[in-house]
Every structure is written in structure tokens, then in C-alpha cells.
Amino acid sequence: xxxxxxxxxxxxxxVFIHGGGVSGWMWxxxxxxxxxxxxxxxxxxxxxxxxxxxxxxxxIDTAADQLIELIExxxxxxxxxxxxxxLGSQVLxxxxxxxxxxxxxxxxxxxxVKQIPFATMLNKSMIMALPLxxxxxxxKAQAKALDISDxxxxxxxxxxxxxxxxxxxxxxxxxxxxTIPSSFHTYPHKILATVGxxxxxxxxxxxxxxxxxxxxxxxIIFPKVGHSAPLxxxxxxxxxxxxxxxxxTIIDVKKEEN
Length: 258
Fold this sequence. Notes:
Elements: E1 3-6, E2 12-17, H1 28-34, E3 39-43, H2 60-74, E4 79-85, H3 87-98, E5 105-109, H4 119-127, H5 130-133, H6 136-145, H7 150-161, H8 165-177, E6 190-196, H9 201-213, E7 217-222, H10 229-232, H11 234-247, H12 253-257
Parallel strand pairs: 2-3, 2-4, 4-5, 5-6, 6-7
Antiparallel strand pairs: 1-3
Helix pairs in contact: 1-11, 2-3, 4-8, 6-7
């Protein structure tokens, strides 16, 4: 698995796990903020970014195992926080279920944990739309919806062009059928679950399910934001994460945004 690391001399480590269809670059604004005080570890998931050439096929389970192994290699006794987004959040939830003592702070952003009805049939139909996804004009619209800036559009678009239908179907199937593992219910460390105010109801219901599944989960809704909080409101996102980790407090995101 390809990864980058920054600020390796620092005493605490944050692992940033990107979403589907992008790669580690999506966390650049978080790395710029946190790398002066934390050791930041930024992997590319299997069949994404620079891990695409490794030959390993993506699954949430496989990615979780690989990241656990990487963190165990790199942590060197550090306190570990992990931050996931969308597909990366599902990978993070799987990691928490597999290795109880590895991560002390888990920030789960925009994670789908409720199965989509008829997901297999839906995903197969989406394969027909894959050529549209690779259309530059369509990709521009998708990038705008995710608040991907012009600075990163070419990188986003080039990665989109490299998606093959088999990888696309694997990612979509895993994403749409993911549910919370039973071991998550008793995870003893701190978990922060977030969702954007403009996200679909199923995403908000997923956050509620996580808060009801484990008393250690706190839920936050980012105001005026869709499925893109780390990119849309990076300053607010970073302050929320830092204050939660360092002071065990949750800033008032509505007040901070206004």
C-alpha cells in the first residue's frame, strides 16, 4: 500500500483515510494544518491513487487489514487517531472492529452503515454509466459537488479515467452493503461521527445508528455542507478534530460557521 508521512518526529499520530474515487491528496489541507504538531500518515487505498499498481483488489476488509498492519509498524508507542471519509470511514469502522486497542480517537465522516435496498442490481446498472463518469464535463460537475478545487481537478480527473469497471463494481458493492460490525458496539475509545446537513437522509440515519450503537460515539452535523466536509470547510473541520482530541470538547460548529 502506497502512503506518505509527515512530521514523523511528533508524539501523536493521525492516519487520514480517503474516500472512494479519490486518494490521499484530498487530505492536503488537513496535513498542512496538523503536520507541525502530529505525525500524519496518508495512505492510498487498494485500487486508488498510487496503490493502483500494487495488484491488490479492493475490499473494505482487506484495506482494514492492510492499514492495521501499517499503523502497527509506524506507531512506535504513539497515541493514534484515525480520520476516515466516506468509503474510508467504512474501512475505519472495520478496523475498530478488528483491533480494539489500536486507535484511541476515531473520526468517522459521512459513513454509510445502512444497506441500500437492491444494491447489487443498482450497482450493476451503474456500470452502464461508467463512460459518463469519465466524461470531463461530468467530472467537472462531480468535482464541484464535492468542493474539489481547480488545483486538484486534473488529479481527480486522471484518477477517474483510470477506474475500471471491475474495481468500480467492487467498491460500489462493498460501500452499499456495509453494516456496523457487532464488535463496534463495545469499542471502548472515543469516536466522533459527522455528516453534512445537506447529505441524504440515509447518511444522517447512518450517523444516528452509530450514536445509538455505542455510548462512546458523539454525533455532529456540519451546517450547510453536503458530502464533502473535509474539502468544503477545512478550517472548521480541522478545529473540530483538534479540539476534540486535545481538550475532549466539541466546538459549536453552527456558531463557528457563522
